[in-house]
Structures are given as C-alpha cells and as structure tokens.
C-alpha cells in the first residue's frame, strides 16, 4: 500500500466512497501531475511514497495510474481522417478533475489505427480481415453484451466514411453511436477506454469517479463486476461512488474475494488535518451511514417497521406472504411479510428468522400470524395471549373468495349480474371437495381453481394469471382494499 500525505489539500469524498482493490499499491484517485523528488513522487499538494520504490522511469510512472472524472460525456462524434497515433502512455489525460472528458472519439481513432496496423503487418498475411478486426473489438463486444444483454457492438464502420461506431439492438441493426441512450454511452465510454488501455496500462491503478452516472442499478452492478473481472493482473480499480447498486455489488465481490476488495469510509475524516484512511468493515453501522447519505429521509424505510412471519413454504415465493404484500402494499408500505413454513414453524420459528431480524434490524417489530385452520378456541386464546395473531377465518382464501370480493371480480369484468353464478361456482367446488376428499365445508381453498376458470371463461378475464396462485395474487388481491373483507383481514393481522 502506498503511504499518502496531503498536507494542504482538501479532498472530502463523502460517505460510502467505495474502493475495489487488487494486489499492488494504492494511489488516491485525485492529485495534480506529480514531480519526481528523490525517493518520492510529489506535487505542490500531494506526496506519494511507494513501498516498492518509485517507478523506475517515465513510462513506468505514466502507467502507474489512469483517472476518469465524473464529467464524461460525448453525445456524438465523427472521425473523418486517420492519423498516426501517439503512444498510449503519452496521452496527457486529465489536467483537472473538473474538466469535461470526451474520450470516445480519441479511442475510436486509436482503435481504427490498431486495426489498420494489424492489416498491414506482414506477420498477419495469412489471417483474414475479419479475424484481425475481431481481435481488437471482440472483447469490447462481449463486455457490452454482458452488461446490456441485447446491445451488440456491430463494428467501427469505415473510418474514412463513417468515422463512428455502429450497434445492433433487438430488431434494429447498424445504428449510429449517437442513437445510444445516455446511459449506454456512459457505460460504453468506460468499457472502450478500459479495453484500449488494458494492454499498455498493466501495472496501474484505474480510478473512476462516479461510474454509476446515468445507469440503472442492474447495469451498475454488471458493469462493476465486468470491470473487476477484466482488471489486468497487477492492477487495481478504485471507484468513488454514492450508488447503492455499486456498493452492494462491491460488497458481493468482497464476499467472494475478501482479500481483494476493501471499503474506505470518510464519514468522520477531516482533511484540513493530517488524516490516515484505513479499510473499514462494511457492517450495519457503515450501511446506515451510506443509506443516510444516499437516501436522506428515506433511509429509515429501508428497514421495515414491522415484519410479519406467516405461513408458506418459501420466504421468497410463499403464496401467503405475496398475497399479504399485495393486499396491504398501499396502507402498510413499511411492513414486510415472510413465509416461514407451516403453522407450527411460524409459532416456534425453528429457523430463527424472527431473532435474526431483531438482531440485524433493531427497532423492527416481529409478529407471527397463523391460519385459523383447526385451532381450538383455547389454542387461539393462548396464541393471542403470547402476542401472536390468528386469522378469524380458516385461511387466506376465505378472504380472497368472500362474497364482496367476488362482487368486485364481476364488476372488474363489467358483469355485476354474474355474482350469483360466481358464488354458486365457489360453493359447488367447496361442496365437492368436502364430499369426495373430506375437506372442511368452510375451506374456500378448494375453490381456487374453479374461480380462476370461471373468471376466464364466464367473465372473460384473460391474462389474469397463468395458475390459481397467480390469479389470486395478481387479479384478486388488489380488489380487497375498501371492502368489509379487507377491514376484517386488517383487524386480524394488525389488531
């Protein structure tokens, strides 16, 4: 690690700035052009002392770092001529971090020059032009595809006629660079620059300020993951960001590569005084500070006020939990529902979910909710005495398929007169299940499939759910708010 001293500079980078590091030396991402001074490299504001000694020559120093600012934008370009390119290491790069960067055109010209040089290299006489072109753009194409899926770099076109990049996306083919979205351009800029520099900058700290700009959370995580995976051996990647998507992905990378990824937290740093920054553990306190900066007053919503443990086989896909979320999403946005098993598993919490939540999210209230099923009055009284909630009806289907909800279902199809038919369909299915399968006469769960078929065939509600579970979640659950059944269920769940 490099020892860094900033005697007169002020460089407060904010909470949650993330550093993703490899295994070489570390240089801060912001400092003016340095001057060699004996055993150190220095400028008026920055002194850098290397544990492995200062770079031995000018080229070694130039490849020590590559910096991209947060002001990266090149909406359109058109290169109209080929010219001899100066060596990549002689590219002056940024003078100041507040300067606007327009590097896509420069990298286009450098890429075209590399391809042309390969074509005229006698050692490549037996190779096809396609092969030579793919040697230079193939890896860029693969990275773009990994990040965006359907966005494919088609070619750099004819540098003397087109002078720009062309892409394929979905059914559109060979469309101009200028037609990319601002996010696609931002990511392509970084990916292109990274690949162009990778061969020459092979003992380097790559520094990117706010790589998440203009990108959605999913693309942010994919971009960071690809840059990390493609980082040349002996190099580091430093990222300064407030993005939760970037930091979450950095955290996942740290879990997989604990010796290669570190976080730096500057929350309490005062850069008017000598300051030593050390790696910090991304614990709950760290994430609280991150959320307070990234979300401000919304940060408190990230930890639910209440978690309700309910029946269902899978915490992520449990039917009951999904229904409760759909029903109460508007009135109770700060309440989360988790399916943790059958009624016995909910009551006893064998998996320890409730205890884990109370440790991880102090202040979050944990409740347990079970179906009425065959519980006796004495059992229900005891459960409620312990603070647990018990539905007043047999199961959640008894609310979803209640008369007033079936009325709303018929209203949704603009056929209110068919309510009696819907009730008859439900009751007949329940009676058949009781007669032939021994089901309870008040178990409306038996009518799920029948009502789904009725809604599709008799009410004409198409695309209302591919199966009974989806039908009840997507089509029926949103019908509850404002009804007597909703008020009854709300009382059962929340008191």
**Helix percentage:** 25-40%
The side-by-side strand order for the widest beta sheet comes to: 6-10-11-2-12
Overall mean confidence score, pLDDT: 82
Query: Could you say which overall geometry the principal axes of the C-alpha atoms support?
Result: elongated
- Poorly predicted runs of 5 or more residues: 1-40
How far is the first residue's CA from the last residue's CA? 58 Å
- Report on the biggest sheet: 5 strands, mixed
Number of domains: 3
Structural class: alpha/beta
Q: How many separate helices?
A: 17
Give an overview of the whole structure:
The protein is an alpha/beta fold. Helix content is 39%, strand content 13%. The strands form 4 sheets. The protein has a 5-stranded mixed beta sheet with strand order 6-10-11-2-12, covered by helices on one side. Strands 1-5-4-3 form a 4-stranded antiparallel beta sheet, with no helix packed on it. A 4-stranded parallel beta sheet has the order 14-13-15-16, sandwiched between helices. Helix 2 runs antiparallel to helix 3 and helix 14 runs antiparallel to helix 15. The N terminus is likely disordered.
Topology:
Elements: E1 3-5, E2 18-20, E3 35-37, E4 40-42, E5 47-49, H1 58-62, E6 65-68, H2 104-120, H3 129-148, E7 151-155, E8 166-169, E9 172-176, H4 182-198, E10 205-209, H5 217-229, E11 236-240, H6 244-256, E12 262-263, H7 284-295, E13 306-310, H8 319-328, E14 335-339, H9 343-348, H10 353-360, E15 365-370, H11 377-385, E16 389-390, H12 397-400, H13 403-412, H14 419-437, H15 448-457, H16 468-476, H17 484-494
Parallel strand pairs: 6-10, 10-11, 13-14, 13-15, 15-16
Antiparallel strand pairs: 1-5, 2-11, 2-12, 3-4, 4-5, 7-8, 8-9
